[in-house]
Amino acid sequence: MLVLTARPAVFPAGHTAYSISQKYLMRILPVVTILGLGAGAALGAEFEVRQSDRLFAPARLTVGKGSVVHFANDETYVHHAFVDTPDFKADTGDIPPGERRDIVFTRAGTFTIRCAIHPQMKLVVEVTEKE
Q1: What gap in Å lies between CA 73 and CA 36, rounded to an integer?
Q2: Bridge partner list, 5
Q3: φ, ψ for residue 16 (rounded to 5)?
Q4: Are both 73 and 29 inside the same structural domain?
Q5: pLDDT tens digits, 52-62
Q6: Does residue 16 have a pLDDT over 60?
């Protein structure tokens, strides 16, 4: 176990305390922050859903609040993804073949995305509070 502290501390046997200066901490904090952002721990994480064979792939997705889901149309015909609930509404409009549209999930909850043109297409997106 690694414990970082700015002043001496007493720990049970087997634990070690490391002292870190505020100056050093301020130098490494941006690096740690950037690493965290790169790992998807940031606002606006991005996900891609493919539309192919009249299915959403994947059919289920878990994202954090504020995430962007890109809907890519791999078909030779138009799709149109939407969600319409009392808590959250979004609509990509028509997505021509080879193009993509985005939905930003601003509310936590579980939402069913459908295609307005192909009613059998269904995607469940679980949006967590964690951004």
Answers
A1: 31
A2: 19
A3: -120, 140
A4: no
A5: 999 999 999 99
A6: no
